[in-house]
Amino acid sequence: MKGKRGQTAVEYLLTTVTLVTFFAGMYGFLQGQLRSLFKLAGIKILTPYY
Q: Of 50, 19, 9, nearest to 42 (Cα)?
């Protein structure tokens, strides 16, 4: 019984570490992309009004 609980805890920890690593990587990758996308979207939205 104790081995099953330990295995479950390790699986949860590995899943959490994997998800945190994935989202941290995506945040780092998208941070530079989002700036240019917001600028481009703002220009496209405001261009018809001026």
A: 50
